Amino acid sequence: MGKAKFSTPLLCQSKLLCFSLLYLISALILAVHFTFSATKCIFRSSPFDPIQSSLFSYPSSYGEHKYAIPTTRSSCNSPVYFSDYWGALKEIQQSCANSTELGASSLRYMQGNAESFGGNFSIQKRVSYFDHRVDETEIPCGFFKSFPISSSDQISMENCKGVVVVSAIFNDHDKIRQPRGLGTKTLDHVCFFMFVDDVTLKRLHFHDLISSKSKEHKIGAWRIIKVSSEYLYANAAMNGVIPKYLIHRLFPNSKYSIWLDAKLQLVVDPLLLIHSLIVKENVDMAISRHPYFLHTMEEAMATTRWKKWWDVNGLKIQMETYCENGLQPWDSSKPYPTDVPDSALILRKHSVSTNLFSCLLFNELERFNPRDQLPFAYVRDKMKPKLKMNMFEVEVFEQVAIEYRHNLKQGGASVGPKVKMASSNLFVNGSCSKCEGYLLKMWGESHD
């Protein structure tokens, strides 16, 4: 019996075909490598974390996924490594259970009645509360008028005792978007609250997203809280500032929170975000850096240039007030990488420092305007005790949330009071003597 002959497989007889297969396999290996590479800004240590299924199906007419803003960044200088989901959940639970110093009770708040929700204090009075190293001092922190929500909603908010995620839509300015990437147990331990006004609520009724017969509303993960905003501020953006910065007072028993502008859709589990950006970093607050600006004055000038707020004279007075009271441009001696954040996403531990910062900043917003990037560095740098803050890379922000454009409306959105607009140049004809030193230092011309 002769020896068996083994011929070359037909598949490998063509050199071109063999080369193509080798190229395909190499490309697949590289694709897998870059998909899970640690050069990404976010990296899950366990790709097998349990993921919640889709939370809600919207009618096509609502269009909640229209007008996403594309991003082009693919890597960053300091990637965030997420812990195992179950480990993060356990550690946050233990932190919430064992922390007596966290929550709204970490400060004492001023009581009383006033014509405005925040009291509208003078600059001298506001400055006097920045140094809070004496625990007995009562801090002005809003609620000088009642916050107009139902008693059942208030009870539900007080019962949120761990992590809360909060957003708001006023004047039907955005869509409700469901968070993605939630672990299977996250909704058992994290509360989601969306504040809306009557205009937004009517739009939700129009799309049959909620029932007009029910007194309590829920859409997917979000519990919908109706706010009778006509009793608060005339400007819708200022009403949105209340849940954004007084979140610790609206949820007095929560220990951690995430504020999410309604233009964003969260795509990473909030427990993983809190654990990686707050707990592991041992900070009070985490917030993204601004993609372009370092100095507060750059943001102020952009606010007038792009007409984000029409009252330019009011902006000028605001910046002169801050310059006169110690605002300095950013430099490397500051323990923060920038003076300007992107405040669409804010993560907080409800500590003394964070609650104080939120109260002080809210008071500035009520006095001037709801553009919260303008008083940010002024309050942060001037307050005591100091705030431990993680100002993370812009690329991280772009990978934990998808940003969408606001609802498109005829005539545009209301961005400020109806006043006669001054020049779009914030400091026209050099008329900013109180900020001259700031500007010279910012431009590198100071000889101090």
TrEMBL record:
InterPro entries for the chain: TOD1_MUCI70 (IPR006852), TOD1_MUCI70_glycTrfase_dom (IPR048354)
Q: Which Pfam families match?
A: TOD1_MUCI70
Residues in domain TOD1/MUCI70 glycosyltransferase-like? 112-406
Write down the PANTHER family for this protein, in alphabetical order.
ALKALINE CERAMIDASE TOD1 (PTHR12956:SF13), ALKALINE CERAMIDASE-RELATED (PTHR12956)
Q: What is this protein called?
A: TOD1/MUCI70 glycosyltransferase-like domain-containing protein
